[in-house]
Amino acid sequence: MFIIKRISLIIVIGLVAVISYSNSFNGPFHFDDLPFIAENQTIRDVGDIGAIWKGVLPQHSRFVVFYTFALNYHFHKLDVFGYHVSNLVIHIISSLLVWWFVALLIDSPGINDERIVKNKHNISFFAALLFVCHPVQTQAVVYISQRFASLATMFYLLAICMYLHARGIRSRSKIVWFVGSSFAALLSMFTKEIAITIPIMLLVIEIMLLNPQMSIKDQLLLITRNNRWVYCFLILIFLLIIPQQFDFSIKSQLFSEKISNSHDGDVITFASYFVTQFRVAMTFIRLLFIPIYQNVDYDFVLSKSIFEPAAFFSFLAFILILGFGIFYRSKNLLVSFGIIWIFVTFLPNFIPRADVIFEHKLYLISVGFYIVVVTMLFKLIKDPKIVILILCLLTIAYSKLTYQRNKVWNSEVSLWEDIAKKSPKKWRVHYNLGSEYSILGKNELALRSINESIRLNPVNADSYNNRGNIYARTGMYAQALRNYDKAIEFDSKNAKAFNNRGSIYRIKGMFDLALADYDQSIRLDENYAFAYYNRSIILKIKGDHAKAYADAIKAKMLGRNIENSYLNELKDKSQQ
Fold first, then answer.
1. What is the pLDDT of residues 115-159, one digit of tens each?
2. What SS3 string covers 483-540?
3. Domain boundaries of the chain, sorted by first residue
4. pTM assigned to the model
5. For the domain 426-492, what is the CATH superfamily, name and number?
6. Distance in Å from the first CA to the final CA of the chain
């Protein structure tokens, strides 16, 4: 009966996940999906491990995910359905690991609260259920490339679950579980660097839950006196080798300045980034409690000083919550652990990145939140039936919000429209929205968005080039020419702008100027197929059919779709 009940609950988690994400399976590739999947030649052969290992990134820290992309490409090519199904399966497995993880925590020697132990199965199940349906997880599930976050979390949880399970075994088979835990941790690290906190989390578990009555000093001595030193040795190797494999440099990672992608004009330093992360932490907590106003591309201003009001009060709240988690240990150890989990898994966020905030970073962090919320409800409300009703209603609400949030990801236009509403002062948002409108032929909307992009950033060459394309498409050649001139003025190495200006000169019959621009475009980008094709047209007009044929062949080799009749015509005339 118990097994049947457990299988039924697993099916419930799977059904809730499928229903919540049922409208996400046909969402297109977004953002990094293009270079990492759609345009990534290194994942085209699942058997070419060397190419996948080399990858499109300078370090190997994402090898495991890229291998799963190669598997997806092997079976599904570029059909997004298979990629989305894979992401959802990973999400469901992660939720089941949350279930196992919480159950193992409650079984640990440190948890002796009668009400919590009595409700072990309810607490672990509902923590997993909230994890699987919470709308804050959408970015890690629907955004295909953020398999980095979901898969790393899956292996992270597996490593800790296997460790906890091994700690409860007295036979020699525990060694197998310890080695399995180490291997899972290694897979997590080669998926995403967030796994670097696994050793810290294991130490927290040892101190708080497995030996709660012992001092830290005594626990460290105990570790050295039994077989756990083997595992600690593996962890030490893990900490020393992996950062080197990632090409991690303290100087470049922590102390080099970066241009912020999160707010136009901001320059990231270690100090400003560190201070800003306290505000990011409060935003994350707000999203967990009130999952509305989600945003893929936040306009998040850097804090220059800890004494700025927003930064100071966020820092104060951060310290108070952490302090509460530590001192609440004597009253409710599981809640205390959940809070500590949030803070430990948040630590990698203090390493500076160009993007100050991303919601997918909450995927691993949120596990602690579900532990805290579900445990507190069962602790504060005596009647379990009332708690179960509340959590069921919360599951329904979260699932509906997740379903609604998925709609934003259904197209590039819907995604950028949503971002533009929430980050209206970011020029790149309007630029990208205008580009998507332009692709769909919505020229008026495209022009409006590109104009706003130029208003916010009047020196971006790509914006002028894009506006020139819109004018050219609508026959406004004089305006198009002025915009291409502007694009070249701000970026003299913009191959696309030279190519596009050359096309306007060609339309106007100014063939020598057109040829000069096509030549320059090819000098700037030797693999630009459109420029070769356009130069071929000019050379044909000028009667140089041999060179025109050579350019047309080159353009076709680079991927330009060229009619065979055009190639045959040039070939015949070049041989006359």
1. 999 999 999 999 999 999 999 999 999 999 999 999 999 999 999
2. HHHHHHHHCCCCHHHHHHHHHHHHHCCCHHHHHHHHHHHHHHCCCCHHHHHHHHHHHH
3. 12-408, 426-492, 507-576
4. 0.92
5. Tetratricopeptide repeat domain (1.25.40.10)
6. 87
